[in-house]
Amino acid sequence: MKNWDVLTQPLDAVNALSRELGVSLPTARVLFNRGLTEASQARFFLNQSLKDFPDPFLLKDMRVTIARIIQAIESKEKIVIYGDYDVDGTSATSMLMLFFAEIGYPIFYYIPHRIKEGYSLNLSALEKLKNEGANLIITVDNGIAAVDEVAAGIQMGMDIIITDHHQIPKKLPPAFAIINPLQAGCEYPDKHICGTGVAFNLIMALRQALRQKNYFEKEPNLKKYLEFVALATVADVVPLVGINRLFVRYGLASLQNTEWPGFFALCQVSGLTSGSEITAHHLGFRLGPRINAAGRLYDASLGVRLLTTQKKEEAFQLADTLNQANDERRVIEEKILDEALLQAQAQNSDPVLVLKSNQWHAGVLGIVASRLVHRFSKPVILLTEENGLLKGSARSISGIHLVACLKECESLLEKFGGHEMAAGLTLKPENLVSFKEAFGKAVAKNLQPRGKTLSIDALIGFSEIEDRLLKEMGLLGPFGQGNPEPLFCLNGIKIDSHQIVGKKHVKFYVSSEQKSIEAIAFGMAERFPIPIPPLNLVFRFRKNTFKGQTHLVLEVADFQII
Question: What's the CA gap between 77 and 69, in Å, rounded?
Fold first, then answer.
């Protein structure tokens, strides 16, 4: 059972916001809770459109980058995209491959193997690319910390452009250009876009520059590329505010009727059949894991091949392969989770969990760490040994900046990188004990007392649950990190009927004299007494579509027996 915190708002201000916007009181309360207390702010939030995208040339070094790419096109140089093996890196690589193909200038890509090569640029890969005739390397979702590797690439005679979104290190690589919204002197307003978001700005700027040169017979429409940005934005768990919310909103709209064979096949094998509404949740928990499974267990190029193929038959073959890889990933993940939970018992009082096993698969550590964070509400690092070094993944909680904490321990680390909520690291085995102590101290300095609390947007009456409210909730999305799905509370409700579904879940109906509404409580079968007495219920809204008919469902987040 969690503590409930029902957020309160000044009634006069909420009533005024409701009147000015023409929305229901519950929706006005949610907007107020999101800091949108003025009608002008809230109206902009509700009505953002593609015209609100920032100018891509606000990104520092964008102009010199575009000039260099156009020079490469005019000189017929070999351009190589150097990607990463996660969803963000795979999506950015695929999007650029398709865009350059559409404008009639095919390029090449390289993604390092997660286990054999590791993250970011490496010397062997650069030598290989140089020997194959590469003139210009453009990184996506990596490279910001690759000082020595970039210097080596320059010595080989290649120009390297870094596009990345990760935290800026003390020393920047000597690249031809660096595009990263976090770097000093960058005027781009949205600082926390993902790597594919940075790459989308690149193709926006390139299209604009080529248009001015009368390059196009038929100018590319970029809306369809937002599907890649939406997938990466959700999978990389960047805040769904500002331009990120626009990326996902319009990307989902395009994905609903996608023209990309790879996305269509991926949706099909993920259980999202034609006509299904695709949400941000589906991006994060269905499509994303299947793309990630390729890089986690095998070769991330499988994901690129799927997302870039123009052949339907090949798309379904690749989607099936990734689906099978995802099933295999689940089995490995559960085994690691069970073993990690046993180790975690000995560290229950520590501010962090730092767990290690030489038998763990490196490609699955991040996702298991995320599950442990959810369970223990503390930062988690999982490590395994490779080639005499401990390598692993870290995941954090709100309020604890991982990279900042790792910087306090950098004398004990061989390398590290990432952002606030997720990071990767490498250290020598003999430094593990000292690192764990130092990292724990760094986290403890910033740790606030935490309890498991549900922040509830509003108490509502049964009569307020209507189609209008459901439609208004749709205007507030997409939901995710930084834009949480609203939670509401109904007090003193009566349960009409119930049934156990799949052993772990409870389906029931809440009712008043006027109507009855379906509710579902996932994973709560053991908590519900039978028969179910009157309850106070915390829930979020869901739509359930069956045989073309859509109806409202309350998805239970928690309950109290009266």
Answer: 9
